[in-house]
Protein 1
Amino acid sequence: MVTGTMPLLTLLLLACGETPAPPTPAASADGAAVDVGPAADAATPATLELLSPAPGERIQTPWIPVKAAASGTKGSLRFDATLDGAPWPDPDALTRPRWVEKGEAVDWITELDLLRLAPGPHEIVVTAAGPDQPPLSTTVRFETAPWPCEVALSVDDGDGAPLGARVIVHGSDGPLAMLAGSALAADPMRRDRELHSFLLPDGRLTTRLPPGDWTLVATRGVRHDIDEQQVVLADDCSGTAAVAFTLPLVVPTPGRVTADLHVHTGLSGDASVPDGARFRSLAAADLDVVVITDHKQVRALDAARRSAPGLHAVQGAEAKIKTPVGRKYAHINVFPLALDGIVYSNGRDMAQHVDSWRARARKHPVDGVGERVLIQANHPRGLQVHYSGKPSWGPAGLFARDGLVRSVPLGEGANAWLSRGREGTGTTALDFDLLEVLNRFSWEMYLQVRQDWFLLLDVGRTPTGTGNSDSHALAVELAGMPVNLVESGTDLPSFVDALAEGRVTVSSGPVLDLDLWAAEEGPGERAGPGGRITGAHAVATVRLRAAPWVPVEEVRVVQDGEIVFREAITGPLPAEGRTFEVPLSFARDGWVLAEAGPPPEGPRPSAVALGRFAWVAPGYVPLAFTNPVRVDADADGELTPLTPAEAAAASAQRWPDLPPAAPSDGTSEDASDDASDDASADPGPGDED
C-alpha cells in the first residue's frame, strides 16, 4: 500500500468547519465504535432497522450488501451482529454518519456471501449501543433460495497466470441482475440496480446461475482483450459448469502505471457499496494505483490491504468549497494525505482552500513525499450521474458555479475571480495541480472542459489533464474507467512527480503515445507529454493502439487549441497499432497534444455502433487524450503564453460558451450530499492551522 505514516486503523469522521474529536477506530462488526455526533432530541425515539435483507425476503442472488440504519441515537455507537446465532465479525464492515440526518443517525454496512449459507431460513441480529445510548437491537429472518446451477469461472492471461477480472452475464432477455429487492432499496442512489457482473479479483470464482442460455463476457480494463463464452445450463443443473477465459495483454504500456484518482467507498454519504466489494472491484479493473477520495474525510486503508493486496492505495479526500454565504460551488480532490490531524479544509473560496490544504500538508507530511500535496479540480462544469440522463450543468463544478466565460479575458469582468490573488499569499482560484477533464462517461461535459483546459494552456496555466471514474458503486460508474496511464512507478514519490509534471495519458478505450521531435538542424530533441522542445518546426509522432473490442473513429493532433491533423480510422487496428507523423510549424511558443475518439463536433456514438464496447462499458465513449508537449518556438529559453485577451478571442472562435449555469435540478449526487453540510459554518480565524 502507498500510505502515510500514521496508524491505518484510524478513521476520522470529519465535520465541516469543526475541529474533530480524537480519532475513533474504524468500525466493524466485531465491536468497534463510531461517534454519531451530538445527542439527539430527547423527544425523538432511537431506532435500529435492518434495511437489507428485509424481513421475510427470499433471496436468490449469490451475495447481498447488508445495511443497518440507526436513527435518533446519541453519543458513540458500537455495532455487533450474529448470523444464525453465531458471532458475525467482519473487519471490513463500515460505520458512518448518515448524510440525510447529519450527525444524529448512523449506518452500518457490510456484505453477505449467500453461497456460504445452506438454502432455507436464516436470521441476522444487529445490536448498537454506547455509553450514552441504551442498547438497540433488530432481528430479521430471511430465506435463501440460490440460483441452482454451479459455475466455476477462471480468468488467465494466456500463459496460465490468473488475472483479476469482471465477468458480465447476458441472457436472451438481456443482462442478468446481480442484486434485487432490499439490496437496491438500501442504496438511496440506486446505482447498483445495473450490476450485471461477477467480480473475480484473483481470477477465480465458483458461483451460481439460473438455468438457461448465457453469454458471459470477461473484461479487465482497456489494455486487455475481452473473452466471450456461451454457456448452456440445463434445468437439472447437473455437475459444475467450468468456464475459462483468456484475457491477453494486447496494449502493453511499459514504464506507465494505471491509476484512478477519484474513487469513493461506502464512507461517502452518497455511496453504499460494502468495502469488500469496493476493493474487489478495483482489483478486477487492471489498476496499479487508486486514490480513495471520500467526501470530507480521510480513511484508513486496511480494507484495501485485505481485499486487494496488490493494489497501491493512496489516502485522499474530496473536499467541498463554499461561497461566503455557504453555497457550495466546487469539489476538489486532495492527495496524498496523512491521517493524523487532517481535517476538512473549510475555506470560503478556491484560493483559500488551496492555501489551507497546502498549509495542512506542511504540518502533517506524508512519508516519502513530505509536505507535497496535489489538488485536483473535479468535474469543473458539473455532473452527469447516470449515462441515460442529461448532464447537470453547474452542481459541484468550479467553472460552472461562479463561472468561467471563455470569451472573456481571464482577470476581467466575469472572470476576475479566477485570477484574483489572495492577500498575503497571491494564491488564485486557478492554482490547482490537476484538472479532471473527463469524469465518468460524460462525453458532453468532456467537450466543454476540454475547451476550458485549452484556454488555460493558452495563457500559460499548466494543470495536468486527468480522467477518472468518480465511482461510488460497482455499476454505472465503472472503477478504472476512464484510466490514467502515468509515466512512473507505483512508489508514491515518482507517482506524484509524474502527475504534477503532466506525464499522463487518459483512456476510456484507445491508447495514445505522443512524441514531439524538434526539426531544427542538429540532433533531434524529443519530448513526450509533460515535456518541452525548442524550435519553430517539429514532427509529431502519434501511435494509436486499441484492444480489438474498442472501436476508434479518428485520431487527431491539436496545436494551440486547433485541430491541425485528423484521420478517420476504418477497420480494426493492427496489433502493433498505427503510427502517424505530422509536421508542425510554430509562429510563437505553444503546445501540442493528441486525441482519439469521436469527432468533437459530432454526436455521441450509439450503443449499436459501439458493439461489445457498449456491453463492457455501457454509456461510455471510446476516447483518449495526451497531456501537452510545450514548444519554445523562438528558442529564448522561456515559454511565452498568449495574453488573456488573445486567449479569449481564440477560444471564442473555437467553441461556444455555455449559457449561465442553472441551479441544480436535485438529481445529482451533489444535491444529495448537501444534507451532510453545515451551511452556516464560518471558517473564522485559524483556518490554515
Protein 2
Amino acid sequence: MPQVKSLNQINLLSSLLGIAILTISVCLYFLIHQYQIFFEEAAQFELAYLQNEKNKIKTQVDQVFEYINYQYAQAEERLKSNLKNRVAEAYAISDYLYQQHQSDKSIKEIKHLIHDALYPIRWQKERGYYFIIDSQGVTHLHQDRALEGKSMWDKQDSEGRFFIQEMIQLSQQQHDNYLKYFWYKPHDDPKTMYPKYSYTRYFAPLDWIIGTGEYLDNVERDISEEIQAWLQQFHGTHHHVFLLNSQQELLFDADQHHHSIEGRLLRDIYQQSQQKTASFYPDDQDKPQRLSYLRYFPQWHWVIGCSSELDEKETYLQQKLFNLKTQLQNQIISILVIFFIIACCAFIVSYWLSHKIAAEVNRFDHFLHYSASHNQLLDPQKFKIADFIALAQSANQMVQKRQQAEADLIQINQDKNEFLAIAAHDLKNPLSVIKGYAEEIEEYATQMSVEELREIANAIQISSKRMFDLVTNLLDVNKLEEKKMIIHTSQHNLYPIIKKIVSLYCAPNNAKGLRCVWSDNCLVQHFYAHIDPELTWQIIDNLMSNAAKYSPLGGQISIDLQNHADNVQLSIQDQGQGLSTEEQQQLYKKFNRLSPQPTAGEHSTGLGLFIVKKLLDVMGGQIHCQSEPNQGCCFIVQFPNKQPSKGN
C-alpha cells in the first residue's frame, strides 16, 4: 500500500521539485521566449513603419481631396460673380452709347451702335457672349445671328419651363436676376440640354434686357484644369500624388519619370475606389512593396490617390534588428543573475508557506468534523489565505443550504398536512350529504314523490359539483406549481367571453337577485387581447364567483372594460364587506380564507384567487385589488394585447 502523505509534505516536496525543474529549464525557456519577443518586436517595427506611411499618404490625399471639394463648391459662386460683372460691363457700354447719342441719333441707330459694340466681345475661351431681348421676348443680339429678330417668348427648356418669360419678369423686378435653366450648347448635340446660369439686367431706355450666360459644366472643366495646375507642386516628393478620371486615364501623376502606376492596375484601382470611397490599395497584402491610398470624388468621378514606395523599409528594419540583438544579449546575462537570487528566496518562502497551509488545513478540518453534527458557520476572517477564505464561504453556503433544505422539508410537510386537512374537511361535508341522501333514497325511494327525488338529485348534484370544483382547483394548483400548465394564446375579443360569464351569475332568476351593470365603455364591444380563451374563462369565472359569493342579496356588480396602449383592462366591482389593507396583502396566497364570509352560506376553498394570479402570470397579465372595509372590492385585471417578446 503506498504511503499517504499530508498536504504539508506534498506542498514542500512539490515546491522543491518545482524549484529544481524551474532552475534547469528557465534559461532555455527564457532564451526561446526572448527569441519570440525579438521577432515580434521586429514585426511590430515593420507594422509601425507601414502604419506611418499609411498616415502620411492618407494625409496627403485628404489635403488634395479637401482642396478639390472646396474648388468644386465655389464653382457656382464664381460663375454667378463672373456673369454679374460681365453684364455690368455691357450695361455700362450700352448706357454710355445711349447717353452720348440720344440727342443726335434715332433709337434705331442707337440700338445698332450698341449691337455692334457688344456683338464681337468674347471671353472664357470664346464661349462667353452677350444676348439682348426685349420685354416681348424678341431677340436683338445673339451669338447666332439667325436668331436675331425672332421671338423666344414660348421657348421651353428640358423641364418644360418658359425660361425667357421668367428672365423678363426677373429683370423688370430689379433684383439679382440669376436664373438657372437647361439649354442647348452651340455646336453640340441639338437633342441634349445642359444646366446653364444666366444673369440679366433691364435697360429701361430701350426696353431691353441685357444678359449673358454660361454652362455649369464648362466652369467645372475650367476649375478642374486649375486643380491639375495646382497639383504640379507635388512633383518630386517622396509620396506620389496622382489623379484618375472615369475613363481610367491619368489626369495627373507626380512621379512621371518612374511611371508610378502601371496601366494594367488603373482599372482595378478605379473599381476598388467606387466600391470603397476611401481605402488602401492593395488592401489584401500583409507586406506590399508599394502602397497607395485612394479617395473617390463622386461629383467628377475622379479617383484621388497617393502612393509610397516601401523600399526604405529594409534599411530601417536592419538597424532596428541590430539594436534588438544587442539589447537581448545584455538582458540574458542580467536575468540569469537575478533568477539565481529569486530561486534561493523562493525556497525559503515555500518552506514557510507549507507550514502556513498546514495550519489552515487543520483549522478547516476541525470545522468539518464539528459541522457534521452542528449547524455552525465558519468565520472566514480567521483564515489568511484567499483560497481557504473561499472554501470557508462555500462551506458556510453548504451549511445554509442544508438549513434551508431542512426548513423547506418542514414547510412541505406542513403544506402536505394542511392540504390533506383541507381536502378531507372540504370533501367530508359533500360526501356526507351524498351518503345521507343515498341512504334516504335506498330506504324511502318507493314512498317519495318525483318532486322530492328531483330535490334530492339536485342536492347530490350540488355536492358533487362542489367536490369536482375542489379536485379541479387542487389539480390546477399542482400543474401551476410544477409549471406543467399548457397555454395557447392568440388574439381574442374579451367582450363575448365576459358577457357569457356575467349572464350566468346575473340571470333574472338568480337566487340572490344580483344585478350586473355595464359601464358606457363596454358599448364598444371590441376589446382584443392576446390570451388563452379557456384560462381566461377560468380567471373571469373565479372573479365573478367571488363577486357573487360576497355580494348582499339584491346587490349590484359593476363591470368595466377599457382599451389601453399595451393591455385591455377589466374591472369587477361588488358591494360586499370589503377588505382591510392587511388582508389585501394576503389575497393571492394558497388555502387563504379572510374575514369576509359568503352572504348565502356558499363554500370557499381558498384557492380561487391563488389560481387567478398564477394563470395571469403565465399569460403575462396582472391583477390588483382596490378595497376598504364595508366598501366592497374592485378587482382590476390587465390582459396583454400583444404577444410578449421572447426576451421577456
Protein 3
Amino acid sequence: MWKVMIVDDEELIRFGLTSKVKKSPLRITNIEQAASAEEALELAKSFKPDIVLCDIGMDGEDGLALSKKLTAVQPRVKIIIISGYNKFQYAQDAIRIGVVDYLLKPVDTNSLHKALEKCVEQIKSKELSSAAMSIVEKTVLQTKLRAYAASYLEARENDLSPMFAGYSEDSIFQAVYLYLDQSFFVFIDSIMDDLLRDYPRFALGKNLIYYEYRLNEYLMMFCLAKEDTDNFPDAFYSALQNALYMEFGGGVKSQYTIGVGGMSKDLRQTVSQSILALEHRIFFERKDIIHIKDIEMYANRFKPETSALRGALRARDRGKIIAALEQTGGELLKEKYSYHSVQSFYNRALILPNEVLDAYMQEERASEYPKHVYSFFSIGDMLDFIGSVYNEALDEEECGGLQSAAKYQNEAIESVKEYIDRHFAEEISLREISGNLHINYCYLSILFKEIMKINFRDYVVQARISRAKEYLLHNANYKIKDVADMTGFTNQHYFSKIFRQETGLTPKSFREMRKGV
C-alpha cells in the first residue's frame, strides 16, 4: 500500500535501509532507490513515493535542499532525514521544512519502523481531515464556483478573481470537456479526487473548477501559471484516463471522449473550443482525446440531403433505406461536414417517419432518443440508429400502429439478460452484445432501459452484487478478493466501493452481519 524511496549516494547504505524497511509491519508494497538528488527528483515524478528516506550529506545537492524540492512538487510526501552528524542546526532546519523525523546513522531498525509509522499516521490524518471537509464544504464551494462560472461564460461578468484564487494577469486557461456514455454513471468528485492525488498543485477554487455541465458531461477549467503550460496537458489527460479506468474498474474503452480546448488568455475561448472538439467525436471513433486542432478540416457547412431517405421511406422499401443510409455515410465522411451540419441532418432524419408514414406511434421512446449526434460512437453508429428507428416505424405501421414489434423487442432484452447471467464474471459490453444480436447499440440501450426500467450498467452491477452476496454468505473460505474476481470486478477496492454503494455495507461487514442472523 505504501511506497518508499531511499536516497543515499552510498550503495551499501541504500541496500541496508531497504532491508530494514522490508521488515516493517506496515504494508510497504514498493521500494525504489536513488543515488543522488537529481535522480531522486526524476524518479519521484513517475514513482510518486509516499515516504522518502533521505541522506543529508550527499555529494552535490544535500538532503535538506532535496526535501524542499520534493515537498514543493508533491506536498503529500513525508520525509525522514538520515544523517551521520548529530548537529542541532541540521535538526532545526529539518523541522522547519516539515521533515517528519531525523535519524542518526547507523539507523536503528526499531527507530526506523517508528518513523515510518509516524509518516503513515500523518498521511492518514491528513486524508481523514480532507475527507471530512469535502462533503459539505466542497459542495458549497462547488455551487458557488459554478454560479460564478455560468455568470462569466454568459458574459454577465468579466472578473475572474472570484472563481480562481490563483488568478493573475499572466494566467493562461485551458478547458477540458469530458463526455461519458449514457449507460454509465460516475461520481465526478471521485474521479477528481483520484486525479488531484497525483496533481496536488491543483485545488478547487484556487486554479481549478469542474462540474457537470449536462447529464454525463463534465466541464473542467484550469487556471495555469506559465511554468505549468509546458508539461501539464498530455500528462494530465493520461492521468484522467487512468482515473476513469479505476472508477469503472476497467473496460471503459470508447465509452468516453475528452475534448481539449487550446491554451488561451481568454477563458471563454478555450471553453468553447473544448466543447466544439468534443462535439466532433462522431468523426473520431478511434480517438479518446480530441484537440481543437484535430477538427479544423471538418468545416463544410452545407446541409446533407435527406431526399433519398425520404423516398425510400415513402416506398416502404427497407433495402432502399439501407442503401440510402450507406450513401449518406460515405458523403458525410468524404465531404468533411461540420458537426452542426451533421446535427441538422440527424434532426431532419428523425422526423421523417412522422411526416411520411401513415401511422407511427413513437412519442414515448422518441423522448429517450439521443439529442446530440456526439452521443454516437461514429457516423456509422448514428446511421445504424436511424435505420433502427425506421425499421421500428415500419413495423408499427404494418401492425396498424397499435402494437409495435413488442415480441421481438422483449426477446432481444431476454437475450441480453441471459448473456449477463452467463457472463457476469467477465468484462461485459453492451456494444459487443448488440453486435451479436445485430441491433444498434444506442437503440438497444434505449430499449433495455424502457423495458427493464433500469439502465444496462446498473443492471449488470446489481446482477454482480447479487451473486457476490451469495458467495459471501455461502462460501466462508472465499476471500473478499476472490469474490471480487469471481463476480467480474477488476479489483477489490472497486468491488468494495460498489458493494457499499449498493448495500450500505462493506463486503466484510455484510458477511459478518449475516453470520449473526
Protein 4
Amino acid sequence: MSVQNVLAGPILRKTTLNAVYVWIALDKKMVVSGGLYNSQGLELEKATPASCKPVKLGENLFVYLLEIKPATPLTEDSFYTYDIEVAGRNLSQLGLTTGHKGITYGNQSRPGFYLPKFHSHILQASCRRPHAALENGKLPVFDQSEKLDKLLATSINNKNRPSMLFLSGDQIYADDVALALQLKCSELGEHITGVSESMPYKNNTQIKPYKAKKYSQRNKKWLTEKGGFTTTAGENHLMTFGEFAAMYLMVWGWSADALQFKTYKDIKSRVTLKSARHGRNRKAATYSIKRADYNREVKVLNGFFEKVHHLRRVMANVPTYMMFDDHDVTDDWNLSEKNSTALKSKALSRRLATNALAACWGFQFWGNDPERFGTKKLKQTIQNYYGQDTNSHQRAATAEKTLLDQQFWQYTVPVQPPVMVLDTRTRREFQSKSKLALMDDQAFKLLDRDLHQLMATCPDSKNLILLSATPVYGFSTIEKLQLKFTTEKMKIALDREPWIASKQALARLVDTLTQHASLEHIVVLSGDVHYGFTRFEQIFSRGRNVNFYQCTSSASCNTPSGSVGRFGMKVLENWSRFIKIDTPYLMAKEREKDFIISDTNVGLLNINEQGPIATTLHCHNVENGENYRRTFALGDGKRRLLTGD
C-alpha cells in the first residue's frame, strides 16, 4: 500500500502568548522540526527539541505535537505563520500549501493564525457523520465544515478573523459506520498498526474482527450480547485501535486519492445471505446488502471525502480545541447505570473503549492541554501498548486501567475570555432509576479546582466560555419527553441524558460556576443533539444576576434522525409554541419563527469584554439546497425571546 508520509495535519492546537502547539501525523519516524514567523516573515522561534520526538502508535503511525515557545511572549492582536519540516522538506515542498486543496489561504505561503488580546470571534461545530446523506436521499453530502473554510477565507487578513475553533463532540462516528467505510478502516488500520489486532471475547478467547469470514460475524450481536453495548446502529462498529485511528486520519484530511473503496464484486463473497419469503410458501436466499445500496453508499462516501480538505485547511489556520462525546466511543456510552456497569465489566467492551480513548488521546486530548494530557505516564502507557504489542494482555490491562478508570479529560484554556471544557461522559452518577447526574462528586470537585486556577489567570473577566457536549439548558419540549420515561429501553431510545435529569447536579454546576464574583456572562457551547438553538437564562445566585447563554450548534454533517426526525423537529417546534413553554428561546433576526434549526449548521460567536453580542448559525437545507444563516442577538436590550404567557 502506498501511503503519503503526512497522514493528517498539520493541525494548530493550543495557542497562547507563551506557546504554540502544532500536531501532525506521519507514517514513519522522521526528523521533524518547526518554526514560528511574524507577519513580515521573520522567524521568531523554532520548536523545542523534545517536542520533535513522536509518540509511536503503530508500525506506520507516528504522532508529533510540536511545541514552539518564544523567548519573549508573542504580541497581542497580531498575525503569525508557522512552518514544519519533515526530513528537510517544508510544507510547501511536501505539496501541502498549493492547489485548491492546499492548507493556505490566498497568496500566503504558510498557514497561520490571528492571536488577539480578546477572542471576539469563536467558531463551533459538532457531529460529522460521513454517510449522513444516505438518510436524506440527497447527494452530495453537505458538510458544513466547508462553510467554516469560507468564513475563514473571507476574513483571513482582518481582525474579525475567527481565532478559536471548538469541536464540541462526535468528531467521528465509531458506532454508526457505513460498511464500505468500515472495511477501509479495517484495511488501513491493519496497515498503520502493522499487526492484526485481536479483541477479547467469550471465555477469554481472542477474535480478529477483520478476519471474520462473513461481515455479519463482527456485527452488533457481538457487542450487545457479549459487550453490553446498546447501540442500535452497530453492525459495523469500530473495534480495534487501528480502525479508530484510520477513521480520524480519513475524516481529518487523508488524501481522497488514497481512499479507494472496495467494489461490490470485492465484497460479494463475504456478504451474508438471508432468507426472504416470495409468494405464499417459497423462500429464496437474497443478499443482506444489495449492489445498488452498496454502490450508493460508496458514492456518498466519495462525496464526503472529496471535501474533507476544507476542515483540514481550517484546523491548520485556527487554534482548534476538542471534546469527545458518545459517538467518539460508542452510542449510549454510560447512558444508564446498567449500560455503564456492563461497559466497565465486560472484557470486549473495556478493550473497545480503551482503543477508542487511546485514539482520542492521540488525535484529540494531547493537543488540548499538552501539560495535563502529555504526562510521561500517559505517553508511556499508550506507546508501550499500541506502539509495541497490541496483543499483550498485561499491557492491555495497564492501558485499560489508566484510560478507563483513572483519567479525567476535563481541561481549561487560559485566554480571554477564559474557557472551561467539561468531561460529562466518564464520571457520571446514577442517583436513582430516574436521575442521572452528568458529573459525580469527584468531578465537581475537580471542576471547582480547575475553575479557581483558570479564573486566577484573568480575575476580572466578566465572561466565561463553557463547553458541555450536552446542552446545559436544553430544548425543553424534547427534555420533557426524555424525562417522562424511565425504562431502560426508553432511556436508550430517547437518548435520556439532559442536565435537567438531575436538578441537584444542574444546581451544583450553576453554583460552582457563579461563585466567581466578576463573572456576569457564561456562554455555553454545546453540540450532541443534532439541531441548533439559542437559549437565555438569567440566574440569581450569590446576591446577583448571572446571564447564561446556551449556544447549541449541531450537526455539521448529520440529521436529527433522517426524514422522520426532521419531520418530528417541525412538529415539536409548533408544539412548543402551542403549549407556551415559558423557556426564553432566542429568536433569529432574519426570521423570527426560527428558534430551532434542524438543518446542518456551524456556529460563530461574537463577544467582547463587556459580554456576548450575537451568535450566528450558518445552515444548509438538504431538501432544497439553500444556504442561509440565522443570527441570535445576545446583548441586553436586543434579545428577542419566545416566552410563554
